[in-house]
Each structure stands twice: as C-alpha cells, then as structure tokens.
Q: What sequence folds into this?
C-alpha cells in the first residue's frame, strides 16, 4: 500500500504543543469538547469501564477522564487489540497525516460493539482568517503559501468512519464563534492552543510585518472586535458486532408504509392523501 502524503511537520507540531503547555495552554475549546463528550455518554444506556483517550494534551484529558489510558496521537498508537470498550480521539485528528490509519487503529483497539467518540476541528474553522490571510498574501507577496491546515467537512468526516470499518457511523457539527479584541489577539490564542502553522510545505521564512498589517485591515469586524469561527465535529462509530441492528434487505418489508401512516397509496408523482377513519364504512 502507498503511504499517505506527509501533510504535517510532526516534530514542529510537538514543539508547538509543548510551548503552549509551558506558557499556559488556551484549551477552552478542549473544555467544550470534553463537556460535549460527557453529555453524549450520558445519553448512552451503558457503562464504559475500559477507556482510552488519544490526544495531544494528555494532562488536560487525564483530568477530564480519570482512570483512562491517555496516549499521544503518534502515527502508531500503543493500544492493544480489543482492549477497550470506549476510545475517545480528542481534538487532534485534524493534525494527523493519516486520519484513516488513526481510526483503523482505534477500531482494532475496541472490543466488539465498543464505542469510538471523536472530537475534532471541521472545515468551517477559521474561515475568516483563511480568506483574510490569503488575500493579504497575494497583495503583499504576490502569491500564496500553505498557512492554515486543510480540514475535513462533516460529510467527509462521516466517510472517514465508514472507510475505517465502523458500524452505525454518525457525524454532526457544532460551530462556535469566539470574539477577540484584535486579529493579533486571535493569533496569540492560536499559538496558545498549539494550532499555529505546522504544515510540512509551509514557508519557513519569517513573514514580513506588512502581511499581518494587511491581513488586519481585511479581516471582517463586528463593531470594534473580530470574530473567529471554530467548527467542532463530533463523530460516533461502533466496532462491528453481530448483535448490532442491520438494515433490512430492500423489498423485504412485510407491511406497507401507507398502512402505517393511514394514507392512501398513490402513484410516484402524486401526494398521499390522509384518510379519515370516520368516513370509512
């Protein structure tokens, strides 16, 4: 099999994360993700006792899920086959060179009918910054270079689960708007999140000051503030098991939908008509 392309500079990513932690990481979006994951687990009528968390910020997630096995999102995950009933992939899949490989490893680590929960950034994240910095770079430097990570949209996220062999895949999005006093404050926050540019093909030269000055003038404002969109995607999938519900074979239904809805079945182009039982003899 061919190897996936190297999209991210892994050593640089680890350095940026370590610097963020050392300087007091801004993990408010991780807090949102952890809260949402816990809420979703409450809705599942099942207790999970063997939990693994894959993340780039181990200290935070260890606190959120005491007793869980917390590991780094390395290319090879140190997870034993069928050793967990719940795996949480926490806020780092968007920075993986091989997201499908990560999910396949998580699936193998799950017991049959074990649950995977993923929280990650989605394709609408930082749309305002993407547009402003691209326009500014063309104006000041005469071209574009990779500066913001590409991110999967919700449809692509669902496809990742299917391609990784998960049953009953579900993907949904939760966009959040964060207000800042300036574009400079936003950039500082991205560094504190460990989310600054680590693309393998990035321009490693120090960008000119004029680029950021121009970007600040192009970034949309709301009053005297700027707003950044962060789209959080949540993916749910189950390790396959014979006990899980399976879709019925087409044409195998034993009763008509029209009967269940108390309607008269019409032609393909006609609309069903509601019947009134009191009019029937």
A:
């Amino acid at each position: 099999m061919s190897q996936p392309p190297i999209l991210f500079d892994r050593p640089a990513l680890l350095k940026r994360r370590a610097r963020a932690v050392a300087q007091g990481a801004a993990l408010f979006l991780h807090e949102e993700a952890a809260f949402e994951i816990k809420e979703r687990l409450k809705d599942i009528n099942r207790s999970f006792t063997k939990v693994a968390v894959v993340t780039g910020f181990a200290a935070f997630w260890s606190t959120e899920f005491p007793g869980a096995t917390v590991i780094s999102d390395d290319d090879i995950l140190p997870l034993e086959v069928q050793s967990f009933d719940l795996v949480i992939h926490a806020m780092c899949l968007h920075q993986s060179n091989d997201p499908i490989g990560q999910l396949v490893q998580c699936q193998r680590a799950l017991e049959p009918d074990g649950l995977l929960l993923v929280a990650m950034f989605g394709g609408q994240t930082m749309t305002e910054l993407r547009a402003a910095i691209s326009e500014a770079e063309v104006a000041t430097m005469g071209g574009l270079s990779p500066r913001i990570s590409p991110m999967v949209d919700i449809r692509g996220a669902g496809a990742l689960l299917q391609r990784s062999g998960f049953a009953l895949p579900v993907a949904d999005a939760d966009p959040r708007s964060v207000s800042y006093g300036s574009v400079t404050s936003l950039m500082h926050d991205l560094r504190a999140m460990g989310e600054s540019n680590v693309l393998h093909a990035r321009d490693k030269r120090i960008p000119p000051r004029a680029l950021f000055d121009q970007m600040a003038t192009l970034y949309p404002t709301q009053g005297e503030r700027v707003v950044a969109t962060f789209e959080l995607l949540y993916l749910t999938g189950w390790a396959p098991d014979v006990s899980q519900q399976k879709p019925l074979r087409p044409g195998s239904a034993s009763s008509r939908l029209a009967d269940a809805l108390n309607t008269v079945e019409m032609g393909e182009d006609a609309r069903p008509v509601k019947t009134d039982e009191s009019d029937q003899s």
Observations:
- The radius of gyration is 24 Å.
